[in-house]
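Example (one chain per record):
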Amino acid sequence: MNFKIVIKTVSIFIISLALVMLVPLVVALLYHEPAWKDFLISSCIATFVGGLGFFLFSNTKQRIFRREGFAIVGFGWMIGSLFGALPFVSSDAMTMVDAYFETVSGFTTTGSTILTDIEILPKSILFWRALTQWLGGMGIIVLFVAIVPFLGASGKQLFRSESSASSSDGIKPKIRETARRLWYIYLGLTVAQVILLCLGNVSFFDSLCHTFTTLATGGFSTYNTSIKAFHSAYVETVIIVFMMFAGINFFMLYSLFTGQIKKTTGMSELKTYFMILFISTLMITYFLFQTGKLSMLESLRQSAFQVVSIMTTTGFITENYEIWPPFTKLLLVVLMFVGGCAGSTGGGMKVIRFQVAFKFMFNQIVKTIHPGAIKSVKVSNNLISWDNINEVLGFFILSFVSVVFFSLIMAALGLDVLSAFASVAATLWNIGPGLAQVGAIENFSFIPDTGKLVLSLCMILGRLEFFAIIVFFFPSFWKK
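Predicted structure:
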């Protein structure tokens, strides 16, 4: 392990974070809030530490290999969140553990919170919460495209042939060029949503903050009641549309925005993604209407918003879905696990993995009936190699083991069974709200500090899809 190049690269990341903190500092000045001092102090601390690390190893020019890549990604997220928590601590808004949990939740775009009263916070702090999610969402996209496929640890690698096709149709294979084009899409969607929300009589500040957390599928809001605070079907519709965009593979979005519609609509994952959203919305609408408490239109409105919010793992709420019929709650839990498309800002296990797993399962059933049959797994007419199939199956097994392991820890810390499971599922899949004590209108403030640190690890594990962190626990990873 070349620790010098790891420290140097992580130091550059910390310096970059220090510069970003100047943005909420300006917001604090605009609103005449004393919190500008907190951002200035935090920025100076991050600049000093990052600058020191870079200065000590500035002459290091070795290449970043496989292990160094994992270390940079893993330590970057953990240490970056530590410095990102400084403004919360400096402003006395939270304790260090709470601030770390909140910041990890932001950068990983999870959306779980320890805050019981969001609206009492200064606007600059609320802006920083939203900005951490926006930066985290785009960071993950760049990670998927640039780093993770190189390391062999991403669902994106499952469809290397499709990625190559996308590259030949406009997205360059070079990391810098790819990142630049994806930033254009991200920024373009950001501007579009801000304008549309402003047209719905939402203040520019609220429009900007909610756009940040929508496109990152993070779900942090500036209000205690989340999107329900706007009492607007128009605002909900705008957010639904952009949540759906955020849950789509950004390569597909690039194809869509460059006029390659035939190719985009032909992608199996995209079709499956919309089919799940559509069918789930209809089913929950039916059950809500059957309660006799809502009209068909209102049932559709509540169902559509919550289905899209949960499946894309955004976590915004307009209603307390915990009082809905049992079937609807269970279906929402299933959607939490499914998540968005690979290469999106959404969490979950990703639609593409379920496609591969179900097609593999179907082939095994056919082979049981016809032992001599030769079956292969194909998605979008692309043959999936056994290495990629094994990766998907391994991911499912690792996911199951992680949920069980961390749920046992949370139960040992005093949470009831459902809350222990829900807290792990909500953080491990970067969903935000869960069930029971961590449900739609609840928060994570009651959890002991040890539990908050465990769930912080769950959020990072889920956002980096396990591998970039799990390898740290293997002694061979640290050997030369």
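Caption: The CA atoms of residues 134 and 212 lie 5 Å apart.
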